[in-house]
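Listing 4. Sequential folding, example run.
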Amino acid sequence: MKTWIVRFASLYVFDVAVLLVVGWLLPSVSVGWAALWAALLLTALTLWVKPVISRWFSSRAAKSAHERTKAGEKLVQFALVFIVELIVWVLVVLLSGVNVRGFFWGWVLPPIALLIAWIIYDAIDDKVEARAGALYDSATGGIRGSKTDAAATSPASPAAAEGRAELNDGLTAEQRRMLDDLG
């Protein structure tokens, strides 16, 4: 659950910034305060709807992949990515207060800008999510109370560590820590 909250929050903040930049750079796109709601929609669409649409289009395109050259296949892949980005952009515009004027500058160019932004986010998402996770942990650490904080920060006794190592349950130390974080 924490991972989804952190991923959603970090992508949301990034999407707000991207929408504001798109609204600032493109005079045909008016974002303003609608960026808050539009970013919420964009984040939800990116995390849950975009993968479904991408898989559907990819499965359709894969049926005829053997008939295309390598260059043709790359072109089809780029076109599919653009179509998915265009669908996401149209849904964001229709369901939020973002105003668009002009076909090319309002409907074609912003999905390309979103694609570039998501490429940038993909390159930095591990660092962003790690930092957001640390902020999440520090924020929820004060809420949980001193009992949980003391248990989380106090080192385990050597006997407890030895008992954990002897479990021989096939889990790595990292997997055990993740399971301990859940409970």
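-- end of first protein; second protein begins --
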Amino acid sequence: MNQINLSEATRLIQAGEVIAYPTEAVYGLGCDPFDESAFNRLLDLKQRPLEKGVILIAANVAQIRDLALIFDQAWSDLVLKSWESAYSPTTWVLPATPKVPTWITGGRKTVAIRVTHHPEVKALCEAFGGAIVSTSANLSGQPPIKTTADCIACFPQIPVMQGQLSGLAEPSQIWDAQKQVRLR
């Protein structure tokens, strides 16, 4: 079961499993952000410390409106306009609401979120009914994975959702909304 379709990927996330999927530039590992057991498996697979936190990826603003302070802020228009662009995916570090589990934030008061235009990821978030975890599919400290074959070789126990990378050379930029500084 190395490659799976959208409906199987959705079912697996809903069942508390970890999957891999193509994003704008690299393959990602994802799970239900509210399933602590699935999240811990994801961190174990990556050999990633909890303190680093992860990104949440969503199909639209409605999926994350209860997870971060997005509206009525000095920087709200900047964030919302950036998410309208399919050509420049941007992840924003935003003030987290109490609904975001501490394992997602790495213990911070902020959460990193991206609204995606990637067709397969957008469809996955829509089918799942909310945002999912999005962290690069690689062992912590190693280069991000850019092919299905490499993803399967690195994580043979993780099913990979069918699809293609969008062709960006680098992962999304990460910006701090409150400070308006680029972090990556």
